[in-house]
Automatic annotation (TrEMBL), chain A:
<keyword id="KW-0812">Transmembrane</keyword>
<dbReference type="Pfam" id="PF02518">
    <property type="entry name" value="HATPase_c"/>
</dbReference>
<keyword id="KW-1133">Transmembrane helix</keyword>
<dbReference type="InterPro" id="IPR011990">
    <property type="entry name" value="TPR-like_helical_dom_sf"/>
</dbReference>
<dbReference type="InterPro" id="IPR005467">
    <property type="entry name" value="His_kinase_dom"/>
</dbReference>
<keyword id="KW-0418">Kinase</keyword>
<feature type="transmembrane region" description="Helical">
    <location>
        <begin position="307"/>
        <end position="326"/>
    </location>
</feature>
<dbReference type="InterPro" id="IPR019734">
    <property type="entry name" value="TPR_rpt"/>
</dbReference>
<dbReference type="GO" id="GO:0000155">
    <property type="term" value="F:phosphorelay sensor kinase activity"/>
</dbReference>
UniProtKB/TrEMBL annotation, chain B:
<dbReference type="InterPro" id="IPR007492">
    <property type="entry name" value="LytTR_DNA-bd_dom"/>
</dbReference>
<dbReference type="InterPro" id="IPR001789">
    <property type="entry name" value="Sig_transdc_resp-reg_receiver"/>
</dbReference>
<feature type="domain" description="HTH LytTR-type">
    <location>
        <begin position="146"/>
        <end position="247"/>
    </location>
</feature>
<keyword id="KW-0238">DNA-binding</keyword>
<dbReference type="InterPro" id="IPR011006">
    <property type="entry name" value="CheY-like_superfamily"/>
</dbReference>
<dbReference type="InterPro" id="IPR046947">
    <property type="entry name" value="LytR-like"/>
</dbReference>
<dbReference type="GO" id="GO:0003677">
    <property type="term" value="F:DNA binding"/>
</dbReference>
<feature type="domain" description="Response regulatory">
    <location>
        <begin position="5"/>
        <end position="122"/>
    </location>
</feature>
<protein>
    <submittedName>
        <fullName>DNA-binding response regulator</fullName>
    </submittedName>
</protein>
């Protein structure tokens, strides 16, 4: 029976340890606010104070620590900071830490009595009742102005409790009674219930049941007015024990049941709370899962995005390369098309050339055929004079055909670049001599007066064979377009520093400006046959132009219709 | 003066006949006509050939080039030669060109072209350019002969036949046992090209073949040469006495 009573007391003592009351603490808060404004520049202290008022203990600890680290010189601020820290530790039930912080506070601190109160409470909670008593007794001696910041009844109550714990019932009684009286004045139901409970316990412990039971009943009655299950449950339990001890089991049972009811309610509440907690945990887990899911999703997305980015990059690169190659292809195609056009042109020209050349050759051979028939006829008739004329005619025809074939060969060689070509220093005199040698009989035939004034000292740089071909063609033309008894002159002239001009001048039929321009035109390969007798394919002159160009020379024509033509070949003097 | 000996390597008789006709008309001596590589080598080494005319294609093969290569490689009796060809085929020319010095004659050719090609070949071979083509000179000097342009053709004179040379401005009187003639050549060039072991300058205007000296009379500044020719020995050139082998 006694054991049960003790249990009850212990239970009560835990709860009946009162802390700072709301109103009282507010007045303290006003004080520290003032202090904080005073030290407004000191941000750490200011924020520590604010957090203290907001009861944000962790932040208070952090900021006060910062404040202590920054400045330890200001004793006043240090005391406040230590107080904040001690109080915060106390609230977080880190009692030893709290005690340490409180011990660091100097006795000059404005609210040193609060420190003592806290230290007392800590001692009480740690079961060091005697030490607690010494702290609390000091507090009872304080003046009324100090009680503005703390509750006297709490101090008294705590003192009573200490004595109660030490089984010093006599000392405990006055404190508790005083406390109850003060409590009743304050009309704080909950605290009054506790106070009643404590005092009831005091008497009960001393077996002064008559004194105890009214307090128990008072407490029980009061508890009915509150919603606090804990006090309802405790008062009911106390009543049950009391009734049990009075052997009134019926009543005891009623109280027990009530106690059970409140206990259940409390348990329910706890269970609900636990369920809520579980649900919360579950929700948190769910949330966590969701978060991790989202994270994985995000990762996947990032991977996907990177993949997309790189593939886009690769595609872009491929596109670029494709465009590049496409452009290259277009370029090549353009070149190919241009080349094809060029080739087509050349092919057309070649075809035309073929037809004209073969036409010319056919006429030549045909003329030879008819001439030969005549020759045979005259041979039979032994008409020797006619024979001579016919033979000359034949040789002229053959000469013409030979020249044409020669030009054709050189043209082909030039086009295919198969011909040997070497530019060397040449003496014009000898070249002219050698070429003229073949044409002397022809000129004699036409009774053409020929004159060459080319000097042995006239040096040019050219390819020998091509120069001979040029000269042959120009001379051939000069003779062809000269009338009987005409004249041909070959001479050199200096009109340019770098060039030596070789002029082949005839007194022939000449040409008009259109023909002249046509002959000098780049692409004009074949002139149309205007005069069957004297105008050729134009291949000769074209060959001349090409070869002069290859020899890095220049070509020009001066002509007057009916008066004659000057063909001017300008050749380089120096390589 | 002697005729220049020409060897013709040509497998087409009509071509070689035309060549022979032109060469003989112009006082060249044709020593033979070879129609194959083997025959050509035989004729070349058994005759005193001065110039060879080589048709590049013999029986369809470019044996002409092989011949030129052969005589160019064997150093002893290497002589001037002219390639004869009917086409300016670049590849053939590039191959023929390797046999330096390179001169050629294109078919069909006329008389002037043949003569020009021969002269060019001699000029190029003895590396004395612009002699026959210019108006200033007309003689090329080889180790054995003087090649002198006479009219359209070339003549040669054996150098060892020369007794002395008398210089007159830009002319040189060449005196041999049989004849006298004038050539166009500068004194510096003739001095440079003649073998100075054989020829010595005895006077500003005299170059003497030391092997033809019969007697030297220093007191009279006179040199008696074979054929009873006389040359002057001036004080400036009396050093030749030391060079000439004399009985003591």
């Amino acid at each position: 029976m006694i054991k049960i009573k003790w249990l009850l007391i212990l239970m009560f003592s835990g709860y009946s340890l009162f802390s700072q009351d709301q109103f009282k603490s507010e007045s303290f808060h006003l004080e520290i606010k003032k202090k904080a404004y005073e030290y407004k520049n000191n941000t750490f202290f200011y924020s520590a104070t604010l957090y203290f008022i907001e009861k944000n203990w962790d932040s208070t600890l952090v900021h006060s620590m910062k404040q202590l680290n920054v400045s330890k010189k200001n004793r006043d601020l240090a005391d406040y900071s230590h107080y904040y820290r001690g109080y915060s530790f106390d609230q977080k039930k880190l009692l030893k830490e709290a005690q340490k912080e409180f011990d660091l506070i100097s006795p000059e601190f404005d609210f040193y009595f609060l420190v003592k109160k806290c230290l007392g409470e800590i001692a009480l909670e740690q079961g060091q009742f005697k030490k607690a008593i010494s702290y609390f007794e000091e507090l009872t001696k304080l003046s009324d102005k100090h009680y503005f910041y703390l509750k006297k009844r709490n101090v008294l109550h705590n003192l009573g409790l200490c004595h109660l714990h030490l089984n010093q019932f006599k000392e405990a009684e006055p404190y508790l009674v005083k406390s109850v009286r003060l409590q009743e004045q304050q009309k704080d139901t909950l605290e009054t219930i506790w106070a009643y409970g404590d005092i009831a316990n005091l008497y009960y412990e001393q077996y002064k049941d008559d004194l105890a039971i009214p307090y128990f009943e008072k407490a029980y009655q009061l508890s009915k007015r509150t919603k606090d299950y804990k006090s309802k449950q405790n008062t009911a339990l106390n009543m049950a024990i009391v009734e049990e001890n009075r052997k009134d089991f019926k009543k005891a049972l009623v109280y027990r049941k009530e106690y059970e009811k409140w206990k259940d309610s409390l348990n329910d509440q706890n269970k609900i709370w636990e369920v809520a907690q579980l649900e919360k945990q579950f929700a948190v887990k769910e949330k966590q899962k969701e978060v991790s899911l989202l994270q994985t999703e995000n990762k996947a997305k990032i991977v996907e995005r990177n993949g997309l980015f790189y593939s886009a990059l690769i595609l872009l690169f491929l596109l670029g390369t494709t465009i590049y190659f496409y452009k290259e292809k277009i370029k090549t195609n353009k070149i190919i098309v241009a080349q094809k056009e060029g080739l087509d042109d050349l092919n057309a020209t070649k075809d035309k050339l073929f037809s004209i050349v073969s036409h010319d050759l056919r006429s030549s051979v045909n003329a030879l055929k008819t001439s030969n028939t005549k020759l045979l006829d005259n041979l039979e008739a032994k008409n020797l004079e006619v024979l001579d004329g016919l033979l000359h005619n034949n040789s002229a025809i053959v000469n013409g055909a030979y020249n044409l074939l020669d030009n054709l060969l050189h043209w082909a060689l030039l086009q295919t670049k198969q011909s040997y070509f070497e530019i060397t220093s040449l003496r014009l005199f000898f070249i002219v001599e050698q070429v003229i040698y073949n044409y002397k009989p022809l000129m004699l035939d036409k009774n053409i007066a020929f004159e060459s004034t080319v000097l042995k000292s006239d040096l040019v740089f050219a390819d020998q064979e091509s120069l001979k071909i040029i000269l042959r063609n120009l001379l051939d033309n000069a003779i062809k377009f000269s009338e009987v008894n005409g004249s041909i002159k070959i001479y050199t002239q200096q009109t340019d520093e770098a060039y030596c001009d070789l002029v082949i001048e005839d007194s022939g039929i000449g040409m008009n400006e259109t023909t002249r321009a046509g002959l000098l035109k780049e692409s004009e390969l074949l002139s149309k046959k205007e005069n069957e007798n004297s105008i050729g394919t134009g291949l000769g002159l074209q060959l001349c132009k090409s070869m002069i160009q290859k020899n890095k020379g220049k070509f020009s024509i001066e002509s007057e219709l009916g008066k004659g033509t000057k063909m001017i070949v300008s050749l380089l003097k120096k390589a | 003066m002697d005729k220049v000996n020409v060897l013709i390597i040509e497998d087409t008789p009509s071509e070689s006949d035309a060549l022979i006709k032109v060469l003989q008309t112009n006082n060249y001596n044709v020593v033979g006509v070879a129609t194959s590589f083997k025959e050509a080598l035989e004729l070349f080494y058994h005759n005193a050939v001065d110039i060879t005319i080589i048709d590049i294609f013999l029986n369809g093969n470019p044996d002409g080039i092989s011949f030129a290569e052969t005589i160019s490689v064997s150093p002893n009796p290497s002589k001037p030669f002219v390639f004869l060809t009917s086409s300016t085929d670049r590849q053939i020319f590039e191959r023929a060109k390797v046999t330096q010095p390179f001169s050629y004659l294109m078919k069909p050719f006329n008389e002037l072209e043949i003569l020009y090609a021969l002269e060019m070949a001699v000029e190029k071979f003895y590396a004395q350019p612009n002699v026959f083509l210019s108006e200033e000179e007309d003689t090329i000097i080889s180790a054995e002969y003087l090649f002198i342009k006479k009219g359209k053709s070339l003549k040669k004179v054996l150098i060892t036949d020369i007794i002395y040379i008398e210089v007159e401005e830009k002319y040189c009187n060449i005196i041999t046992e049989k004849e006298k003639f004038v050539i166009l050549i500068s004194l510096t060039k003739i001095l440079k090209l003649l073998d100075d072991a054989m020829f010595c300058r005895t006077h500003r205007n005299y170059i003497v073949n030391t092997e033809k000296i019969i007697e030297i009379i220093p007191a009279d500044n006179l040199i008696i040469l074979s054929g009873n020719y006389k040359a002057t020995l001036s004080d400036t050139y009396k050093d030749i006495l030391k060079k000439i082998r004399t009985l003591k």
